[in-house]
Structures are given as C-alpha cells and as structure tokens.
Amino acid sequence: MFNQRHYVPCVRWKQGEYKAMSLLSTAASNFITPLIEVPEKGYDFETKSDKKTIEAHLALFPKRVANNWGKRPCFVDLNLIAATERLKPAIHPVTYVFAELDAFGCTAIPVSAPGRDTAYQRAIQQSTARKKRGLAVRLTIEEAARPNLRTALQTLLGSENKPENCDLILDLRSPKYTPLAGFAKLLVAIISRLPDLDRWRTFTVIGTSFPPHMGEIKTNLEIIPRNEWVLYKLVVGTLANAGVRCPTFGDYVINHPDLLQKDMRLLRPSATIRYAIDDAWVIVKGRNVRDYKYGQYRGLAKSVLGHPSFLGTTISKGGKYISDCANGTASTGNLSTWRWVGTNHHLEKVVRDLSNFSFA
C-alpha cells in the first residue's frame, strides 16, 4: 500500500534501466514501486528471424530483477512479449517468469489488462492464486472511459481477487496534452467515474510527453516540457477539492512507450543526454556515434553542466557522472551508460518533486 508521495515509473528492464535502479539512493528507492516491463524479444533483420529463443530471452530477467531491485515490491508486465510465445514444452511466459521471481524471493505483482488473451489471463490468475499478492490492472484511457468498465474489471479480477487486494494503473501512454487545462478536465471526469475508486489497494496514473525518437530534436540543446508532471499537478488539485481519490504519479522516465522496430544495421543513433529539471527535460544532442564516436559526450556533458538549470552533483549519481565526464574524471561511456545516467537522475528528481509537492 502506498500513497501520493510514492512514484511508479514504467521501466523497460534493459541494462541502462536496471543499472539506474540499482544505483538509486535508499531514500529514493523507499518511495518507488517500478512498473517493470519485460523487454521485447527483438528481431534480427539480417537473418529475418527472432534474435533468440524465448527461453534464452527470459532466462536472465528474474535474476536481474533480484540483483538490481531485490525484494522491494514491483509490478511486472509481460505485455511486450508476443501472445503466441511458449517455453518448451508448453509453458506460458507469465507462468515461467513469476515462478522464477518467486524463487528469487522477489515481491513481484503481476500486471494484466482487459484486452489480453485468455491464456495470458489464465496464467496471471494461477500466479496470483499461488502467492496471494493480488494483481495490477493496467487500463488505457479508452478502456477507462467505456460504459462497461465495471463488468470488464469484475471479469478480469475473477472471484479470487478483490479491489482491496489489487492495484489500478491508468496508463495514458503518450497522449496529446494540449490544451493542458482541457485535457486535465477530461481526465478528472474519467477518474471520477472509475468504479470502486476508493476500494483499490493503490491507484496510479502514468503517462509521458517524451519524444518518440531523437529525430524530433532539431537543435543541439532543447527544453522539452514534462507535460505529464504539469498535468498531474493540475489534476490532483482539482480531485482534492472535489473530495475524489488522488492518484499516485507515474511516467515512462526518459522513454517513449512505443517500440521502434528498426533495422539496427541502418540506424546511426545520436549521442544524447536526457536531463530532468523542474517541469521539463534538458536534451543535449550530438552527432551519430557510429561516425563521430563517444568522445563527443565530453562536450555534451559540459553543456548540461553549464546550463542554469543543472541541479548539482549531490541529487543523483547520474548528475555526478555528468559533472565528472565534463571535468574529465569519468569516461565518456556509451549509449547504455547515458541511459542509466539520465534514468537515474530522472528517478531521483521525481522522488524529490513529489516530496516537495503540496497535496493539500
């Protein structure tokens, strides 16, 4: 059980993300329950086949959760794994993942949603029945607005699960936020009509305004509004005044929720630093790393360090790394390095934002 001082970031469990989580301060970790997405299996465009078997793909995931998040509670979602995947002889990925997480002693809460297939739902029900941890229901805004939502939720929970033992997550993904006041009004109306809102163990709204790809960043340094955070502050103020339950805040950290399935042989990813500040991100973009290598990160780090919104070196290990890189006392790293740097700083920044926010 947690309240509005908590934070639910949605993180795709790849190296940069789980390293960022492992490097959090204890104070921040105590106020975070991540929504962990099992990463997609991936596709090899050269061989025109999946990169690995589902067994090989899932084998290290539970251990990486245990090693980098320990026994702290987390939500775990397999929505990025194809519905047709099965481990040999005919084991559903949900069944395998949660059995392994249990074996490592992880406090993992399964995530489901109304639109998922019967086999997925059955595997989720079996997992929740075994550990009695309940489940998290992840709704899109379209699902939340449907008139038959109550029936859909009752079907999803089944006879074993009650709202008091389950978590509700309203996932906005990456909507059109503007005009913010109008969207806030719409969201308040949808939240106010959610069935049994006060009964759910926890209630969270997540979303993001992070760009879908760095091709949208046209200049060397841009300020991108964190519209999901601005929206949240508008919504909770209105809900509190109306006596309606306020949600916990969540986002997609420094990611966009949509997957880009592109041929990596043809991509030339740019060097970027993604740095959270008050109500926005500072995004500093360099040239592609294939042709111009990683040494350019030194200059990019200097740009962040010299920006008036830089928050110093004590707020996060990510911020300290930016300073050290700029000053030449840390390496220039690689793409994975800068993913953990930006993710770690963002997580620490949002926990601080929430601790300083007035919910009255």
Class by helix and strand content?
Answer: alpha/beta
CATH superfamily of the domain at 7-211 and 224-260: Glycosidases
CATH third-level topology of the domain at 7-211 and 224-260:
TIM Barrel
At the first level of CATH, the class of the domain at 7-211 and 224-260 is Alpha Beta
Taken in chain order, the helices and strands follow as: EHHEEEHHEHEHEHHEHEEHEEEHHHH
What's the gyration radius in Å? 20 Å
How many strands appear in the DSSP assignment? Answer: 13
What is the CATH architecture descriptor of the domain at 7-211 and 224-260? Answer: Alpha-Beta Barrel
How would a textbook summarize the main sheet?
Answer: 8 strands, parallel, barrel
Distance between the first and last residues' Cα: 20 Å
Segments where pLDDT lies below 50 for 5+ residues? none
Q: What proportion strand?
A: 15-25%
General form? globular
In short, what is this structure?
With 360 residues, the chain is of the alpha/beta class. It has 14 helices and 13 strands.
What does it look like?
This protein is an alpha/beta fold. The chain is 39% helix and 18% strand. It is built from 14 helices and 13 strands. The longest helix has 22 residues, at 335-356. The chain is globular, with a radius of gyration of 20 Å.
